[in-house]
Hints:
By secondary structure, this protein is α+β, with helices and mostly antiparallel strands. The chain has seven helices and nine strands; from the N terminus they run ββαββαβαββββαααα.
Amino acid sequence: xxxxxxARSGQPAPDRCAxxxxxxxxxxxxxxxxxCELYSPGALFSWPELQAMAADGVLTQLxxxxxxxxxxxxSPQLRARAASLAVAPAIRQRVVAGRMTAAxxxxxxxxxxxxxxxxxxxxxxxxxxSVRGCTFHEVRLGPFDVVxxxxxxxxxxxxxxxxxxxxxxxxxxxxxxxxxxxxxxxGVRLRLLRLAVEASPRVPHKRAALAKLAALGAQPEAPDAAx
Length: 227
């Protein structure tokens, strides 16, 4: 198996991804890999060099400018880190990856064409409109709606599932919701998800969201850890 390129003498090593650290009161789901490498443009390699190595099979592209050694598993922390490279550092702490972007980070949806970024209603969103490659959604975020991993803020699994049910068309939402429910480590349960959707403020798509959840109702839920 081809090996990822070694660091040049005197050059910094690739990004090392530690397990995502939670915001107060919330654990990031799932343990991160103890040792994982994400290559991105910088002092070590330029983007053309990374693209050339990917073409040669030395690296594989994870997302946009983020690359992994062939065969390296893509964890949520690595996907979040790769996504963070597409967000300007100046706004990285002002936005939260959400909806289908968050579902992809958790390994439950396809790679997004554009990052879906949530902006808390208490922050100004007008200054972000000119940022390319992203869609912005002004929302209200609670203290348990966000986790931090891979250098990026990401909506929690439950908040991600609620947003996907409410705001994503059924063709894409139902498979993503099924995948989120199928991962016990994410802690999303259908009963809890239904209650969260029903408790949402008056939104135009609540009835459609409940219909999507009804389509999942026949699927057995993973047993609770205590059960």
